[in-house]
Amino acid sequence: MKKITTVIVAALYVAGIVIISFFGAALSGINVKIYAQNVTFIGKGITVNKNGQKTIEIIAEEYPHEYQLTYTVSPDNATDKSVDFEYDKENPGFSVSDDGIVTFYASGTFDISVVTADGGKQSDTLKMSVIKRNEIFVRP
Questions:
Q1: Per the structure, how many domains does the chain have?
Q2: How remote is the C-alpha of 57 from its chain's centroid?
């Protein structure tokens, strides 16, 4: 009886290895897509008000003035970390390149959203206020 039990256990062990090897090889070709779960604007000077709105104030020496948007996409192992920038493209006061460089052509306040390009469509919005240095005045 002991010999039969040992043979059965050995056979099950070998069968298990064969099954795991087969399915492991079969599953190795499967690509698992990990969606972005969050995207967040980051950077020096960005503040968050009590309503959760992110803002930044920029002082430009002259126009046009460029500002590089920075953001993070998480999790770190997200399959597609690419983003799109959404903004009022009809506004002549600024433009945004595909790589997140904002070019300001005039003073004003502008909203820009960063949106993940994958199926998750996570987003964050930044309100940017820009003023030219020589337009700043102090009230008495």
A1: 2
A2: 22
Residue range 22-36, pLDDT digits in tens: 555 454 556 777 878
Per residue in 78-92, is it b (16+ CB within 10 Å) or e — as a string? beebebebebeeeee
Q: Residue 75's CB: how many other CB atoms inside 10 A?
A: 11
Read off the amino acid at residue 62.
Answer: E
Amino acid code (one letter) for 118: D
15: Cβ–Cβ under 8 A, 6 or more apart, which residues?
Answer: none
114: domain range?
38-134
- Closest C-alpha to 73, from 126, 124, 111: 124
pLDDT in tens, the chain (140 residues): 666 666 565 555 655 554 555 555 454 556 777 878 888 989 889 999 898 899 999 999 999 999 999 999 998 888 888 999 999 999 999 999 999 999 999 999 999 999 998 867 899 999 999 998 887 666 66
Q: Within 10 A of 124 (CB to CB), how many other CB atoms are there?
A: 18
User: Domain holding 89: CATH number?
Assistant: 2.60.40.10
